[in-house]
Write a structure and sequence with these properties.
The protein has a nine-stranded mixed β-sheet. The protein starts with a strand and ends in an 8-residue tail after the last strand. α6 packs across α9 (193-209). The longest helix has 19 residues, at 346-364. The chain is an alpha/beta fold. The chain is built from twelve helices and 14 strands. A hairpin with a 5-residue loop joins β8 (232-238) and β9. It is globular.
């Protein structure tokens, strides 16, 4: 039986809500039955009609939705939160305390202190909170992780990750672009480029290597005059084993579309992955010819090959990554929880907010190295 899904946000003019709805439907694990899609009541009603939901289950507010759904015998099992960042935590707290599990878009919230409070609520209620870091659910990212943890690259020495876009290379926020408007507003976004795509790069590097740095230093820049939040981020990382790392995230890199790239170098070889070519993982053993593992090929590890939804040689990436998160979320929710190193939860959310906080502190102090071990990164 499919899990009953509710959604907060994702009304007309929104972007990520439709992505979540497609992902939730892809494996028939969820059925969308309720929503509070917009703070604009008419927008919410129109969205509900377009999605063929019962009118009485299209709510004017998330508070109304919680109250009504908890009282129903057929109320929702889980809610997807797809609002601007400043609403993630208050909405999540409301549903968690009402006994409803949460699937939330990233980043977790707007500050590290707020993340700690939310983590305490997750622990106290015993409910699930799952973050949709979809790139970590690509089959070949899982392949990279498997090979690194199996020791194929030897001891990790260098971690290089970048996420480059061009879409904010002009003052797009001065137009009617809804996404640019809220993502450049400190009250709604909390952080700029570092929160929007920097956390994706950060999570991907730590997910694949299984490593968090001991210390980081950062420079956050607003390249576009008049923009309040950062649109370009440079971060250096130091790891416990002596490894070094660099992270570059930018939304003003002209010519770039969605350039999420990862390179890992070890004592026995290296690997590289580009999100814009998600069906290829390049492996370069020490003193041996490089080779490519393609998604769905027999050279891919069986458990990662089984994740593929379409035959080898067909494009698979962004939507399927979201769908994999939803598929694994359904399994966790049906089994009543339990830790999983593959499914991003509250710990990953805490790590992301700690990363933002440490980077901001470093930037505020002229690039000072910040001890990352001082952060609480688990619930």
């Amino acid at each position: 039986m499919r899990l009953k899904l509710g959604m907060v946000g994702g009304g007309e003019g929104a972007f990520i809500g439709a992505v979540h709805r497609l992902a939730a439907r892809m494996d028939d694990e969820f059925e969308l039955v309720a929503g509070a899609f917009s703070s604009n009541e008419e927008n919410g009603k129109r969205t509900g009609e377009r999605l063929h939901l019962a009118p009485e289950r299209c709510y004017a507010s998330y508070q109304q939705m919680v109250q009504s759904e908890v009282a129903r015998d057929d109320g929702i099992d889980v809610v997807a939160i797809v609002t601007p960042n400043h609403l993630h935590a208050p909405i999540a707290v409301e549903f968690l305390r009402s006994g409803i599990d949460v699937i939330c878009d990233k980043p977790l919230c707007t500050s590290y202190s707020e993340a700690l409070q939310l983590a305490d609520v997750v622990r106290e209620t015993g409910r699930q909170l799952i973050l949709t870091h979809n790139y970590s659910a690509y089959p070949l990212i899982r392949e990279a992780r498997s090979r690194i943890l199996a020791g194929e690259l030897g001891e990790i020495r260098y971690i290089e990750v970048e996420y480059l876009q061009q879409w904010l290379a002009t003052r797009l926020e001065e137009t009617e672009n809804k996404q640019a408007n809220w993502r450049t507003d400190p009250k709604k976004a909390g952080a700029g480029c570092i929160g929007d795509i920097g956390t994706h790069a950060w999570q991907l590097a730590s997910f694949v290597t299984g490593m968090l740095p001991e210390s980081i230093r950062a420079e956050l820049t607003s390249m576009i005059p008049g923009r309040v939040l950062d649109d370009d981020v440079r971060v250096q990382m130091r790891y416990h084993n002596g490894a070094k790392g660099r992270l570059w995230a930018s939304q003003v890199a002209c010519g770039e579309e969605n350039g999420l790239r990862l390179r890992i170098y070890g004592s026995q070889g290296s690997l590289s992955f580009s999100q814009e070519n998600p069906n290829q993982l390049w492996l370069k053993p020490f003193d041996s010819p490089m080779y490519c593992v393609s998604r769905g090929s027999m050279s891919q590890w069986e458990e990662n090959r089984a994740m593929s939804r379409v035959p080898a040689g067909h494009p698979e990436g962004y939507l399927e990554g979201f769908a994999q998160i939803y598929r694994e979320a359904a399994t966790r929710l049906r089994e009543g929880g339990g830790a999983s190193p593959l499914l991003p939860g509250i710990e990953i959310g805490l790590q992301g907010m700690a990363f933002i906080d440490a980077a901001k502190r470093s930037d505020d102090n002229c690039g000072q190295w910040i001890d990352f071990t001082q952060y609480r990164c688990s619930s």
